[in-house]
Amino acid sequence: MGLLLFGGLALLAWSFLIEPGRVTVKETVILIPGWPQAFNNSRIVLISDLHVGSPHIDLEKLREIVSTINGLQPDLILIAGDFVIQDVLGGDFIEPEPIAAELKNLRARHGVYAVLGNHDWWYDGERVMRALNNNGIKVLENEVAQIERDGQSIWIAGLADLWTRKQLVTTTLSKIPGPATVIALTHNPDLFPKLPADVALTLAGHTHGGQVNLPFFGRRVVPSEFGERYAVGHVQENGHHLFVTQGIGTSIIPVRFRVPPEISVLKISAG
Prior knowledge:
By secondary structure, the protein is of the alpha/beta class. The protein contains five helices and twelve strands. The protein has helices at 2-18, 59-71, 96-103, 118-134, 169-173, and strands at residues 24-32, 42-47, 76-79, 112-114, 138-139, 143-149, 152-158, 182-185, 199-204, 233-237, 240-244, 262-270. The strands form two sheets. The protein has a six-stranded mixed beta sheet with strand order 1-12-2-3-4-5, covered by helices on one side. Strands 6-7-8-9-11-10 form a six-stranded mixed beta sheet, with no helix packed on it. Helix 4 links the parallel strand 4 and strand 5. Helix 3 (96-103) crosses helix 4. The longest helix is centred in the N-terminal third of the chain and has 17 residues, at 2-18.
């Protein structure tokens, strides 16, 4: 009985006090047919759900995360929303301006782009967007950006948050002269099956990987109408590619178990 109690307390300590503060770096290789040769072996860093102000993720920790990302020497940095947090136990709300001031120090060959998430809009999306744009992080709210190298291009299509905004998918993609290689950046992966075939890769966050992944039982709480289908990682469906990062902060309950905070490094080449 004593061993069981000790084991239970150890698991609780790990899940609430240790794992939520362990920011890991995970590299994934993705092969995409038709990917431009000029961008072969591109290293894209994807982060999401910073939720700065949640336990374990304060401005000092954010500074460390920025330093870690810069040390990876990424070609491109993409941020899939939820910069702020208001509803997590034990957290302290941090305004978007100091968060953006730390993120201003991110460095990548082709820049830093972002979309906003549901928590950003529940707070004040316009304010979050303004803070980021003022600090050199381009927010793509149903907007696109072209990245060029050696006469070839890829396009970033930033699509608005599924829960709080209107996604102008057709209008946004029509701004890209085709044929083109398109990366769709969105907060919520549930948008993935609604995107057309000419979107080469969709990147998202939002799910936090469920925050808890129990042996035998899996990820019991995933904020998605598809359950665990788009909970985390690289998904391929009908020749389409989706990658969902498991995020960095926490929401509602400051717990993570077998789902550590993650900086996702995507190494992308032609398939």
